[in-house]
Each structure stands twice: as C-alpha cells, then as structure tokens.
Amino acid sequence: MDKNIVFVINTSEITAGTRGASLGPNAIMTAARKKGSFIFGEHPTEKLECVNDLLDKASPHQYAKRIDGLVNVYEMLDSKVSSLLMNNKFPLILAADHGSAGGTIAGIKSAFPNKRLGVVWIDAHADIHTPFTTPSGNMHGMPLATALGIDNLECKTNEVPQDTLSFWNQLKHIGGISPKISSEDLVYIAVRDTEEQEDTVLSRLNIRNHKVADVRTKGMSEILKAIDEQLKDCDCIYVSFDVDSMDPDLTSHGTGTPVKDGLTPEEAKEILTHFAKMDKTVCMEIVEVNPCLDEKKNTMAEITLDLVESITETLKK
After folding, report:
1. Model-level pTM?
2. Residue 306: domain span
C-alpha cells in the first residue's frame, strides 16, 4: 500500500563538528538529476527553515554547542512531522546531521502520544551523550539522550552551566512528553565507535547493539528477526539511518565521522527495505551525507540515492 511519502528536507547542520552536511540533501537531489531519476518530482517535498547562520557566531554553550538553535529545530520538526503523520503522510526525512533526530522523535510522539514507539538506530555511533558527558560539545552525539529523557549523571565529567541545562531540559520536553521512548524499545545496528561514558550507559540500560560482525556471522535474516521480536509490542517504528554506518572503503569518506568496518551498501539496503515493508514503520530518516568531504566526488550521495529509491519503491508497494 502506498504510504503517501513526503520528503522533508532539513539542511541545518548546527550540531556537527565538521562543515558541509547542509549540502547533503541537495547532493542527493543532484545525484537523482544526474541519473535521470524523477523521485523528487514524484513526491511532495517540504523544506524546514535553515538556522545555519548560527554557525557564523561562537556558541556560549561549551558542552552543548548551539543548543539554543537546536531547540528551534526540534520545535520545527515536532510541528512538521506530527502534522504530516496526523494527515496520513509518511515523512521520509533527508537531514544534514543526526542531532536533529530527537526532534523527529518528538514529532512522532506528538502525533501518537499514546502509542509505544520503537527506534531502530543504524549508525557507527551511539549518540547517547549528554552535556554532562560529551567530550566535544557537539550535539549530534546527544539526540537519543533527549528522547530517553536521561542525563547520564552516573558518568558525569562536565560541570554544566545552568543556562545550558535550561535549554537541555527544553529539548527533552519538546512536545510535552518525556521520556519519548524507553531503552527496551531502542535497538542499534552497526554501532562501533563509542566513548567510555556511552558504554556505561548502554550497559546500564541494557540497550542491544547488533554489530557488523553479528550481521556477518549470524546472517541478516537472523538479525532482523531478533529486532522484530524485540519491537513486537511497539505500536509504531522510526528508522534513523546515518550513512557512516556503512564502510567508508566501500562508499566514500563523504560523511563527518567515518568509521571503518561498517555495513556494505547492500546490507544497508536490506535493512532499510525490511523496515519500509512493515506497516508499523511510520517515519524514516537519512542523515550525514557531506559532499565537502567526499574524495570520490559525489559518491556518498549517489549511494544514498540508491537507498532512498529502494525505500520509496518498497513504501509504494
């Protein structure tokens, strides 16, 4: 059944540590035009207001850089995603960096406040830091902590000023619901680059990570079956895909934080189309294509376009 796809384009890149991810969504569109694909003409496209002007000024928030602007991004996503879902649309989000994904989750919960939400996070990184634990202050490492409503105080390494904490608490409560997900309804695929504080939180919350080695030894069908079983009691599912989940030697280094030994593009496609087939899946997001870092011209965007096309073809069946 056609899921009424709407592309949501979010070019704000204020949560990353490198520049250029704001060009990622347009690089994917450029790859489509080069290929002769009309995918972006066949479905409605809605663009969020860009707040990248904040990158032209220093952020006063050492442990949560540009968190004030991220509150606005969360609010825009909360409004846009919830509106689309309540009008029986399927948001397929192309975003610059992963830090905004907490706003996507907020929008899903705003649309379905009484539904249990499962999250499939496909990424090289766990993205579960907080201002209390972050080594960099970059907020693309924190979206899942906002969705889980946690501070990770057990692993505290930073003394966070009150004005930063005020914005942090706003992020956690965007949409008026906190927490938005529970740790038992969160599952990772391909996470392989974490800090000690994150490892402690993952262990304490017993969050499952299906490593790339597991995919190879157990087989993809077994991994997907295990995830389906874990999320069977969820009413709806959100899939968030960071292109750095893939192996840069098999794609390119056209992403902000590439990590070796990742998924193949074929494995990524199998995962994404599996969840696109599921009636429970209500929203999917693809992030972190950065053409400024691509040593193979626009290869990462071209590979990502192939994934997007596969997702849309599956959603339309």
Report:
1. 0.98
2. 5-315
Structural domain count of the chain? 1
Q: Is 244 annotated as a binding residue?
A: yes
Q: Is 193 annotated as a binding residue?
A: no
Question: Is 242 annotated as a binding-site member?
Answer: yes
Residues 6+ apart with CB under 8 A from 195: 129, 133, 135
pLDDT in tens, 61-96: 999 999 999 999 999 999 999 999 999 999 999 999
Whichever domain contains 64, its CATH number is 3.40.800.10
| 249 labelled ligand-binding | no
Query: 127: annotated binding-site residue?
Result: yes
The predicted-structure confidence for 104-117, as pLDDT tens digits, reads as follows: 999 999 999 999 99
Q: Is 56 annotated as a binding residue?
A: no
pLDDT in tens, 227-250: 999 999 999 999 999 999 999 999
